[in-house]
Structure formats: structure tokens, C-alpha cells
Write a structure and sequence with these properties.
The complex is a heterodimer of chains A (about 700) and B (about 300).
Chain A: H1 13-31, E1 36-40, H2 44-51, H3 57-64, H4 66-83, E2 96-102, H5 118-132, E3 138-144, E4 148-155, H6 158-167, H7 177-188, E5 192-195, E6 200-203, E7 210-216, E8 231-238, E9 246-256, E10 264-273, E11 278-286, E12 289-298, E13 303-309, E14 316-322, H8 324-330, E15 339-344, E16 350-355, H9 360-365, H10 369-374, E17 375-380, H11 388-395, E18 401-405, E19 416-420, H12 431-434, H13 442-454, E20 463-466, E21 470-473, E22 492-495, E23 503-508, E24 512-519, E25 522-527, E26 532-535, E27 538-541, H14 550-570, E28 573-574, E29 580-582, E30 590-594, E31 600-604, E32 611-613, E33 620-626, E34 629-636, H15 641-644, E35 666-668, E36 671-673, H16 686-706
Parallel strand pairs in A: 2-3, 2-7, 7-8, 16-17, 16-18, 18-19, 19-25, 28-34
Antiparallel strand pairs in A: 3-4, 5-6, 9-10, 10-13, 11-12, 11-14, 14-15, 20-22, 21-23, 23-24, 24-25, 26-27, 29-32, 30-31, 30-33, 33-34, 35-36
Chain B: H1 3-9, H2 12-18, E1 37-53, H3 65-71, E2 75-83, E3 86-91, H4 104-121, E4 125-130, E5 141-142, H5 148-156, H6 166-176, E6 182-187, H7 196-204, E7 208-215, H8 217-220, E8 227-232, E9 238-242, H9 245-268, E10 272-277, H10 282-293
Parallel strand pairs in B: 3-4, 3-6, 6-7, 7-10
Antiparallel strand pairs in B: 1-2, 4-5, 8-9
Helix pairs in contact in B: 4-5, 6-7
Classes of the chains: A alpha+beta (about 700), B alpha/beta (about 300).
């Protein structure tokens, strides 16, 4: 069977039967023409009229028998319709099919010629394929973005499949093909069993070959480490236009001004995904009212930043929009990335905790008015570390900063930390080898293993040295601003071990004394020496630093840096569809979140004290409410260059007449799935043929009744 | 016989119209009886026509004695003859005449009644016969206005059941009636053996022949469609046709050729041909067509 015809009559003997039909019509026409007897006054004239017809009767009959010809034509059309002829194109392959339809943000690009978007086109293709399915074929429908979803499991019910396809809606999410592949693989190979110990999939049954159709614009990275197994053959249908242009805001955030930390700045990045330089105007509005606009020239294929000063903006919603003129000039194909949102949260009223066995020097230095402006500093003894309330607060991110003076928590809190005279457990090299695995929290595992790779495994835990001489300090870091460390005497100190991502702020002759390192959105600063030592219940200074101006300045820097950073961290943006962990300073049972569509959703507090918010599908501005008051804000944005770069990758050799470009192939594991140049959907002709047959029938009827002879 | 049926053959208005008409013949015929018709022949009437010399054998009663006295010559007075006309109507009553609405036979009867009525009121001898009558069984000879009802009765008695060919019917007619006069043959002429032989019999009789070709609407413009088996009502002959526009066109051509052929045949032999379409009212036919053809005046 070639690609032009698909026989709907599968058993071949039926063909013989079909060939007999026209002969049958002919035979019936000549042999058993049922004529209606009509009595007439005389056949005299009639006989004379038909006399010459009898002369060459057979051929004359054929010539005159238009009705017979029409009947034969009708039959031929019906037979041709049964053959199901169609345009050249890949036919539906296999008995089991998986239709994976990309509904990520980039599929909303309206570049399919008549203004429809790619998802609509994809659906059209799939519906066309479903129409072709025979009764013994089964298929399933998967929609995928950054996560895959089974819209309809394997079924031969075409109505269900069609409904499932119709149900697929565009999303604002990014693309991840791997999820879809894993899902398809799992469903295509139900006989597979995964051995838990080795995590190896074993085929226990003979898996059926399943054809995988991927309908996507190919805006995703190659998939590594995946074997297609029974998903064979694979057909990738690229949708989209190679010269689609798009102008997008690919980043938008607020931050402290470098020069004046009390002022905020908004930063927007405009990317130009076209082959010509574009001039974009970014309009910034605050809570809906226009604030500022700036023009930026973006070269082709590049991104440019634009910075706005946010004087007087303390709280609320910031919206950055590309002006309509620029979008029109670019022929912008994707609308979702033309607007970006940022949240500005109140930065006053931070919360800091000092855990100290009793350190008068420290408590005094933290009691200054300047410091109180940044945060309320609570003081507690290290004993609270074991209380449940403290652990919940710490895990919940209630504090912007926790200062551990001569003590260490069991596991790192969800807060910025400053360690005085102690080393966080995760920083201690070889701890894993010396202690049992129970002590190690998952949070610290990465850092520990990282330090294991960097440090030497045979080294003792912590170096302790006496009288180190400070030889260098990182003055450019905000923590060290205005700090002069000359002529400082330190009695004894721990040498802070190296840590991944760590930055040494104070370097001594014996090694680092102050290091700051990031940890999951927080930062830990570790000072090697304590300010006072408690010996036999009495406090002795360990250093004369407290006598310098630089000591309260350092504490002020610490407070302002960490509290602000923590607060800035609240102005977070999230990818659409990703669940969001909400932070609050209290331990409320539930939080309310209002989204951009005005819907209010209640988020319950989990067992571990976290709040997880899942309804982040639409980009926009979200507010977290505790009771009726807004405690925090966050935004959801599609900041994804892959999605915004809407032009599909073209492999060259293109037919300019279609809007299907031969896209570059997609690599899945070791298999290269080529973008099929032609759509696999067939254009079936049988409907047209049947309509023609009906038209012929009507024509025949007309001729029979009106005695028209053409 | 219901009066209404009789009247349908001859409507009162038509009768009024017909009373002003009279039958005309272009030939000189000898009537059997004296009639109201002034003959071209000289004969015995009160109207003087001419003189001529006496020849031996002339009736002495016609001698003009005054002239003999004056000129001493025997001169015979001639008078115009007044005579009656023999008007024969021959109706084809074969089954094929039973078709049409009104049937061709009915139409023929109406025509015969109208012509016969004219003849009766002019005191002509009117004879109405059908083709199927035997050679010896003559139809009644009608004369005078009083015989109108008899004529209509005779007409009504004719049924379209006679199975006789046209030629045979005409031959019998000729055997029955020897007199000269006007013969009106009303028939559809649809005889498979041809109408020519029949008409030749009439030509031989040297009568004034009028052929009224009665055709029904369904013969002139047949309303048939599809594949049909046409059955001849007389000889059960079958014609299988598949109706199509060309076939219909061909039929019309054949019909046209048939009527034209008949007309030509008739005019060559000094007969008058008239196509009597059954949708054409008798009144119009009488007043317009026949008048123009010279049958009536």
C-alpha cells in the first residue's frame, strides 16, 4: 500500500467483488431493464422515431445512456472513496500511538499563517491523525510543558481522543521533553519493572511497538540519558516559522542601588529574537499607574538591560511592558513575554536572633538605635536551639538573620546566619566520615560532600591557631564597608575552612578568618574567632576588636546586609507552573494568596512548617495575605530565552510554499529524531469523493426527471 | 341518451353560429333530390338560365313557343337546377381514437355534429358513418332540421372499438355510398399499413375530400419520462424507449414529417388536409380554419 491510497477494504478478495460491481451494473442495465409499460394510441410514430437507433444499437445505446454512465461514475467514485486516496504524506504508522503535544508558552506563538497559534495547528494535526485511526488502533494523548500530563490513556475510542485533544490549553510554562518521554515510555511499556536497588528498568513482557508523535516547536534542549526503548518509530512534527520574530522581557527584578543602598532600582532585560536591531520602549508602572519609560536599542539576537530608579516606591506591584509600537514594528509573535512583573516588599522591620551563652559586648553593640532601625534583635540562650518552637521558626524562615555566638544549630535554619567562633556543621570537613550519617541533614549534604572534594580527607577538622595576623580584607564587600582592621589583636581563632562558593573576607597569616558563602538562597558568614570566651563562668575578651569603631560598624553592616538581602529575597519571581514555597515570619495555620486573576486561594501549613503554593500557572503578581493584611508579595514570570526565541531552528532545504519548516532534529538519548518535513497528517479525499458521488446522483436524478441531455 | 351528452356534441351557442354557415363544394354533383342548393347544372326550376336550339329528343315542354312564333325557330328554354348536396362524414372509431382529453373520437363526433348540423339546416343529405360499418349496412340518410337529434344519436352510438384498418374501412364506405358529394374523413391516420391506400379510394370516387387529422395533445407533445415499454392499444405492438431529449426531438420530427407528408399527399390529389388538434375548440375550428379552407361559408 503506497502513501497515496489507503484501502478501507482490507481483505483482498473484496477487491474482486468490487471489480464485479460495474459489470453488474452494465448487465443489469442491458439484461433486466425494467421498463414501465404504458399504453399509447399507437406506437406508429415511436417505432419510426427509434428505427434508426436500432441500426447501431449497442453503441447508440451507450452513447445515449447518459444515465448508465452516470451510474458507473457514481460507482467509480464510491469505490475510489473506499480506497481512501489522500495527498502525499506520512501515513499513520503503527497500531499504538502516543501523541505528545507541546503546550508550553512558546506554542502560543501566532505564526501559523492565518493567525492561529502553534498549539491550534498541532491540535489540528492530531485530530487529523485521529480521524485516520482504524478501529483496531489505539492511541493516547499527552500534553507536555515542563511537566507531562496524560490527557487520555490508551484507547481506541476516537471521540475520547478528540475530546482529550480539544481539552489541551496553552500554558505559560517552559518546556521539558524528558518528562513527556518518561511518561510515554512508562505507559508504552507497561511490562517494565524498575529494580529499586539499581534503578534499572527491566522488561518483563514483550513491549508493543508504539509510535511516538511529538508536536512541538522544538524549543527545548536535547534530551540526554533517555532510551526510547519501544517508542519506535518516533516522529517529530515541527510547528512554527523560522522567521518568526519576538521581542521579550527576559528578566525583570528590583534591587538595591549599588551607590545608595537605601534606594531601589528596577532592572529589566529586553531580548530581541529577530534578525534586525529593534528599538524597544519599556514602560514601567507601579500598582497600575505609569511610572517611567525608557527606550533601549537591542541589536539582533542580543539582550540589553534597562535600569529604572524606584524613588519613593516602597511596596506594591511593578509592571514592565513593551510598548505596542515596538511590538508592532517587530511583528512580535508571542504575547506572553511582553509583560513582566516584579513585587516590591516592605524592607523595614526585619527580625534577627542572637543566640549567645551571654555576651555583654555583643548585646551592647547590637542594641544601638541604628541597628534597631533594621531589625528587632531578640536575644536567647543556645538552649532554645533544641526547643520545637525555635526549630519551627527557624525552618519557616521567620528570621532574617540568626547570629550563633559560640554555638551551632543541629541543622541549618532557613535564614541568613553569622557564626562567631564556631564553624557550621556543614562546613566542617570530614564530618561525614567521623560521625554517623544520622547527624547529617539533607540540607548540609551538598556542602559537606563539596568540601570533601575540595579538602584533603586526612586533615583534622578545624585548625585553631593563636595570635593570627590579619593581612588582607575584602573591602569591596558590603559586610566590610568602612571597616578598618589594622592593629587588632586576636588571642585564638579557628581557621575557617574552604567551602564551595565561599568568599574570604578576612585573610590572616594562618588562613581565612571570615568567609561568606551562599546556601540555598541564604548566606552564611563565619567568623573564626569569638568576641568573648567564657572560662569558668566568667567572660574574657578574646579580641580587642570590640574596642574599635569597626566592630559596631561590622555588626551594622551585617544587619543591614543580611536583613535587606533576606527581604530582597522575598521579592521573588517564580516560573509559571512551579510550586512556590511561601515564607512568613509567623506560624499561621494558613495563608491566603490572591493571584492575578483575582482568585483567592488558601494555603495550609504543612507538617514541616512550610507553605507550598501550586497555582502559579498564570504569570502575574501575587499577594500573600495573613488574615486580611498583605504580608508579602511575589510574582510569576516566564523568563525563559528558549521559550521566547520563537523562530524554530531550520535545517535548511526548505520549501517556501508550506509553513512547515524542516526543523533541526531533536536528540533523544543517542537517537536523532529528525523533524519530518511534511506533516504526517494526511489530507483524505474520500469525503470529497463521496460528496461528488452524491452530486452525480443528484445530477442523474435531475436528468432522469427533466430529460436533460447534455 | 342524456340530453347533456347530446348537447356536449353540439352546444347551443355553436348551433347559433353554425346556422349562418353552409357547406361548399367546388365540384358539380348531381343530387338525388331537389334541394335548396342552386346547382351549376341546368335543370328544372323556376329560375331561367339560358336558351338553346332544339335538338331532337328534347322535352317538348321546354320549347319556348313565343320565340317559335316570332322567329319560327325551335328554341328550348333552360332553367337553373336546384339540388341537394351529399355530405358524408366518415369517423374512424378505432381504439386509438379513444385517447386524449377530450378523446379524439369525442372530438371527431363534435366536429361531425357541427358539420352535419350545417348540412341539415341547408337541407343537404347528411350521412354519418364509421369506418367499421359493414359494406352493406348503410348509415341513415338525414335531411332537414328535424333530423338533428337523430344525427346526434347516431354519433353517440359510435364507440372506439372497431378493429378495422383505415384502408378497409374506406373501401367499405365507398362500396356503400355511390353518390358524389363531400366526404369528410376524421381519423388519426395512425395505421401501420399507411393511410395512402385509404385516401386513394376516395380520390377514385372523385368526391370532394376533406381529411381531418385528429391528434391528441399527448401525441403532439408526449409527457413521458424514463425507461418505458410503450404498448400499442390496437395491435399490442411494443416499443421500448428510453426517454431523452433527443428522442423526444426525434419524435417531434417524425410527427412533423408525418403530418407534412399527409398534407402533401392530400394536396397533390386535390384533397383538403386539416390538422385537428383536440385542444382546439370546435367553435374556433369551424369559424376560422374550415372557413378559410373553403369547406363552409
Amino acid at each position: 500500500m503506497n502513501s497515496l491510497f489507503r484501502n478501507a477494504l482490507d481483505p483482498w478478495p473484496l477487491w474482486g467483488l468490487m471489480a464485479l460491481l460495474p459489470l453488474g451494473v452494465l448487465a443489469l442495465y442491458f439484461l433486466k431493464l425494467k421498463r414501465e409499460p404504458v399504453e399509447v394510441p399507437s406506437t406508429y410514430l415511436w417505432q419510426k422515431s427509434i428505427e434508426d437507433l436500432h441500426v447501431n444499437s449497442l453503441w447508440q445505446k451507450l452513447r445515449q445512456s447518459l444515465l448508465l454512465f452516470l451510474q458507473l461514475l457514481l460507482l467509480a467514485l464510491a469505490m475510489l472513496a473506499l480506497l481512501r486516496p489522500g495527498w502525499e504524506g506520512d501515513r499513520l504508522e503503527g497500531q499504538r500511538m502516543i501523541f505528545a503535544i507541546d503546550n508550553s508558552a512558546s506554542m502560543a506563538t501566532a505564526d501559523m499563517g492565518d493567525g492561529t497559534d502553534r498549539l491550534v495547528e498541532a491540535k489540528k494535526h492530531v485530530l487529523g491523525l485521529i480521524d485516520q485511526m482504524d478501529s483496531d488502533m489505539s492511541a493516547m494523548v499527552i500534553s507536555f510543558n515542563d511537566e507531562a500530563r496524560v490527557m487520555q490513556g490508551f484507547t481506541d475510542n476516537r471521540r475520547k481522543l478528540r475530546e482529550a485533544v480539544e481539552k489541551i490549553q496553552p500554558t505559560a510554562r517552559t518546556t521539558n521533553l524528558l518528562g513527556a518521554l518518561q511518561l510515554a515510555d512508562g505507559l508504552a511499556n507497561p511490562g517494565q519493572v524498575v529494580e529499586v536497588e539499581s534503578n534499572v528498568a527491566i522488561d518483563v513482557g514483550e513491549g508493543e511497538k508504539t509510535t511516538l508523535y511529538i508536536f512541538s516547536d522544538g524549543r527545548f534542549a536535547d534530551v540526554k540519558g533517555f532510551s526510547l526503548g519501544n517508542l519506535d518509530p518516533q516522529i517529530f512534527v515541527p510547528l512554527g516559522n523560522a522567521d518568526s520574530k519576538n521581542l521579550a522581557i527576559t528578566a525583570f527584578s528590583t534591587r538595591r542601588s549599588e551607590a545608595r543602598p537605601e534606594d531601589r532600582q528596577a532592572f529589566a532585560q529586553v531580548s530581541n529574537f529577530s534578525d534586525e536591531p529593534q528599538t524597544a520602549v519599556v514602560e514601567l508602572s507601579h500598582n497600575g499607574s505609569f511610572l517611567d519609560a525608557k527606550e533601549v536599542e537591542v541589536p539582533a539576537g542580543e539582550a540589553r538591560g534597562v535600569t529604572f530608579a524606584l524613588t519613593g516606591v516602597t511596596v506594591g506591584q511593578l509592571t514592565a511592558k513593551l510598548s505596542a509600537e515596538a511590538l508592532f514594528a517587530t511583528a512580535d509573535a508571542l504575547a506572553i513575554d511582553n509583560t513582566a512583573y516584579a513585587a516590591v516588599n516592605d524592607t523595614t522591620g526585619g527580625r534577627a536572633l542572637l543566640l549567645t551563652p551571654g555576651n555583654k559586648l555583643l548585646t551592647t553593640a547590637l542594641a544601638t538605635e541604628r541597628i534597631q532601625r533594621y531589625a528587632d534583635v531578640e536575644v536567647a540562650s543556645p538552649d532554645v536551639l533544641t526547643t520545637k518552637e525555635h526549630q519551627e521558626l527557624a525552618d519557616n524562615g521567620a528570621f532574617d538573620l540568626i547570629i550563633y555566638d559560640q554555638c551551632v544549630p543541629e541543622r541549618m535554619p532557613r535564614a541568613n546566619t553569622l557564626f562567631l567562633g564556631t564553624i557550621p556543621p556543614s562546613w566542617v570537613p570530614n564530618l561525614e566520615m567521623q560521625s554517623t550519617g544520622d547527624d547529617i541533614d539533607n540540607d548540609t549534604g551538598d556542602a559537606a560532600s563539596a568540601s570533601e572534594q575540595n579538602g584533603e580527607p586526612t586533615e583534622p577538622q578545624i585548625d585553631r591557631v593563636n595570635n593570627p595576623q590579619i593581612i588582607d580584607q575584602a573591602k569591596e564587600h558590603p559586610l566590610m564597608a568602612y571597616i578598618e582592621l589594622g592593629n587588632i589583636y586576636i588571642s585564638a581563632t579557628n581557621i575557617v575552612p574552604d567551602v564551595v562558593g565561599g568568599k574570604v573576607l578576612i585573610e590572616s597569616t594562618d588562613g581565612p578568618l571570615l568567609t561568606i558563602a551562599p546556601r540555598e538562597g541564604f548566606e552564611d558568614a563565619v567568623l573564626g574567632f569569638e568576641i568573648t570566651r567564657t572560662v569558668d563562668g566568667s567572660q574574657y575578651p578574646n579580641t580587642n576588636w570590640y574596642r574599635r569603631y569597626s566592630f559596631p560598624t561590622f555588626l551594622l553592616n551585617t544587619l543591614s546586609y543580611f536583613v535587606r538581602q533576606s527581604q530582597d529575597g522575598l521579592d521573588r519571581t517564580n516560573l509559571p507552573g512551579h510550586s512556590m514555597e511561601l515564607r512568613t515570619k509567623s506560624l499561621a495555620k494558613e495563608l491566603n494568596v490572591t493571584g492575578p486573576n483575582g482568585l483567592k486561594e488558601t494555603v495550609q501549613r504543612n507538617e514541616d512548617g512550610s507553605y507550598l503554593f501550586h497555582s502559579t500557572d498564570s504569570p502575574g503578581y501575587y499577594e500573600i495575605l495573613e488574615g486580611d493584611g498583605v504580608v508579602s508579595r511575589f510574582t510569576v514570570n516566564l523568563f525563559d530565552g528558549q521559550e521566547s526565541d520563537v523562530g524554530i531552528v531550520v535545517a535548511g532545504d526548505d520549501d517556501p510554499n508550506d509553513n512547515i519548516e524542516p526543523a533541526a532534529s531533536v536528540r533523544i538519548g543517542h537517537v536523532e529524531v529528525k523533524g519530518s518535513a511534511s506533516r504526517p497528517a494526511r489530507k483524505d479525499l474520500w469525503r470529497t469523493l463521496l460528496i461528488l458521488a452524491v452530486a452525480v446522483l443528484l445530477f442523474e436524478w435531475y436528468i432522469y426527471n427533466r430529460r436533460v441531455y447534455l | 341518451m342524456a340530453t347533456a351528452e347530446l348537447q356536449s356534441l353540439l352546444e347551443p351557442e355553436l348551433m347559433g353560429q353554425l346556422e349562418r354557415l353552409e357547406l361548399v363544394t367546388r365540384k358539380i354533383f348531381r343530387g338525388r333530390m331537389k334541394g335548396e342548393r342552386r346547382s351549376k347544372r341546368k335543370g328544372q326550376s323556376v329560375e331561367f338560365a339560358d336558351f338553346r336550339n332544339y335538338v331532337a329528343g328534347d322535352d317538348l315542354r321546354t320549347l319556348d313557343w313565343n320565340l317559335y312564333a316570332r322567329l319560327d325557330k325551335l328554341i328550348v328554354k333552360l332553367f337553373l337546377e336546384e339540388e341537394d348536396l351529399h355530405f358524408f362524414t366518415l369517423i374512424d372509431a378505432s381504439p386509438s381514437m379513444g385517447f386524449g382529453d377530450p378523446t379524439k373520437l369525442q372530438y371527431a363526433k363534435q366536429l361531425a355534429a357541427a358539420l352535419g348540423f350545417i348540412g341539415l339546416i341547408r337541407s343537404d343529405r347528411v350521412v354519418i358513418e364509421s369506418l367499421g360499418q359493414s359494406a352493406h349496412n348503410r348509415g341513415p340518410v338525414l335531411r332537414g332540421r328535424r333530423s338533428v337529434w337523430r344525427m346526434l344519436d347516431t354519433l353517440n352510438a359510435i364507440e372506439p372499438t372497431e378493429d378495422v384498418s383505415l384502408a378497409e374501412g374506406v373501401k367499405r364506405f365507398c362500396l356503400r355510398n355511390q353518390g358524389k358529394g363531400i366526404v369528410v374523413l376524421i381519423s388519426d391516420l395512425m395505421d401501420k399499413e399507411g393511410y395512402e391506400a385509404a385516401l386513394r379510394y376516395l380520390v377514385a370516387r372523385r368526391v370532394d375530400v376533406y381529411v381531418m387529422h385528429a391528434l391528441s395533445q399527448e401525441e403532439i407533445d408526449p409527457d413521458v419520462k424514463g425507461d418505458l415499454k410503450l404498448v400499442d392499444c390496437e395491435d399490442q405492438d411494443i416499443a421500448e424507449i428510453t426517454v431523452s431529449a433527443p428522442l423526444l426531438a426525434r419524435y417531434k420530427k417524425t410527427l412533423d414529417a408525418f403530418t407534412r407528408g399527409t398534407q402533401e399527399f392530400c394536396s397533390r390529389r386535390g384533397m383538403n388536409y386539416l390538422l385537428a388538434h383536440n385542444q382546439l375548440p370546435v367553435k374556433d375550428l369551424m369559424s376560422n380554419y374550415l372557413r378559410r379552407r373553403g369547406l363552409v361559408r
